């Protein structure tokens, strides 16, 4: 495994970005992992017509097809304006062809006196040493997997079963910028089906058609904890669910709808 690039994306101006090799997913060096894609769209939502006292609470991506490791353009618009609730829409294109469409709800931040309510325990401590991918054969290790630092606490990549891991990006989303808390959560979010797959990934092709991330608060610190599991049915499809947390406890959920087919 080689060292990661300096960032996931290089800014080109005018909403255009050049994807670096760090964005490549585990299945091919020329196709992006959707984690950086989600982070870039989240960054666009945060910067589009920002309103003080509001936050991005939910982001949903519709993945229209593979996203190449290449030059991309991201645009956003307001669909439903409002002082307390705003619906945003974004589109990512490659050479004029849409590859991702997304929506986000920007909502007014809750008052400070609202009681904190969570339903999962504080995650276990982060292991002292980084996790390796020795048992995950036939995957591309020198892209996204190398650009993230992993501290697995349950299960293992490439093995069937629920899983849990701490993770953080080794590089910023966009060169020359500091990642926001929303971006840190989104960059990890699409790893749910890899962390928590209960199907043998060497036998079954699993492709998510979408990604939804709903956060009731923003993560604190650079490390994010993900606990994920997958459900599947014969003659049906699959759903992967994950809980996101930090050292203070639960902060949100991830949901993916997945196609399952024989390799």
How is this structure best described in words?
This protein is mainly β and about 260 residues long. It is globular. It has a single domain (about 10-110, about 125-260), classed as Porin. α1 (about 35-45) runs antiparallel to α3. Strands 1, 2, 3, 4, 5, 6, 7, 8, 9, 10, 11, 12 and 13 form a 13-stranded antiparallel beta sheet that branches. The protein is about 10% helix and about 40% strand. This is Thioesterase family protein. It comes from Actinomadura fibrosa.
Write a concise synopsis of the structure shown.
The protein has 263 residues and is mainly beta.
Keywords:
single chain; 263 residues; mainly beta; Porin; 13-stranded antiparallel beta sheet; 4 helices; 12% helix
Chart the SSEs and their pairings.
Layout: E1 9-13, E2 16-19, H1 34-47, E3 54-63, E4 71-80, E5 85-94, E6 97-108, H2 144-147, E7 148-154, E8 163-169, H3 181-189, H4 192-195, E9 204-208, E10 210-215, E11 224-232, E12 238-246, E13 249-262
Antiparallel strand pairs: 1-2, 2-4, 3-6, 3-10, 4-5, 5-6, 7-8, 8-11, 9-13, 10-13, 11-12, 12-13
Classified by CATH, the class is: Mainly Beta
Distance between the termini: 25 Å
Low-pLDDT regions: none
CATH fold type: Porin
What general form does the structure show? Answer: globular
Q: Calculate Rg over CA atoms.
A: 18 Å
| Secondary structural class | mainly beta
């Amino acid at each position: 495994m080689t060292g990661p690039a300096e960032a996931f994306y290089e800014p080109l101006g005018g909403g255009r970005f050049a994807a670096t090799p760090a964005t490549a997913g585990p299945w091919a060096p020329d196709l992006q992992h959707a984690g950086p894609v989600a982070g870039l769209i989240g960054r666009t939502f945060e910067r589009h017509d920002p309103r003080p006292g509001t936050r991005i609470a939910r982001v949903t991506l519709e993945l229209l097809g593979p996203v190449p490791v290449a030059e991309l353009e991201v645009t956003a618009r307001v669909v439903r304006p409002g002082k307390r609730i705003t619906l945003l829409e974004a589109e990512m294109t490659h050479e004029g062809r849409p590859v991702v469409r997304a929506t986000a709800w920007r909502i007014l931040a809750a008052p400070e006196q609202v009681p904190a309510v969570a339903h999962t325990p504080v995650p276990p401590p982060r292991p002292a040493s980084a996790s390796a991918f020795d048992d995950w054969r036939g995957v591309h290790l020198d892209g996204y997997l190398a650009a993230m630092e992993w501290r697995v606490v349950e299960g293992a990549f490439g093995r069937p079963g629920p899983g849990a891991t701490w993770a953080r990006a080794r590089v910023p989303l966009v060169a020359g910028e500091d990642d926001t808390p929303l971006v840190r959560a989104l960059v990890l979010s699409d790893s749910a089906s890899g962390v928590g797959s209960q199907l043998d990934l060497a036998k079954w092709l699993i492709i998510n058609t979408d990604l939804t991330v709903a956060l009731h608060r923003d993560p604190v610190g650079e490390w994010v904890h993900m606990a994920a599991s997958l459900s599947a049915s014969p003659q049906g499809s699959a759903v992967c669910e994950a809980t996101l947390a930090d050292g203070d406890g639960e902060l949100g959920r991830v949901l993916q709808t997945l196609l399952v087919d024989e390799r």
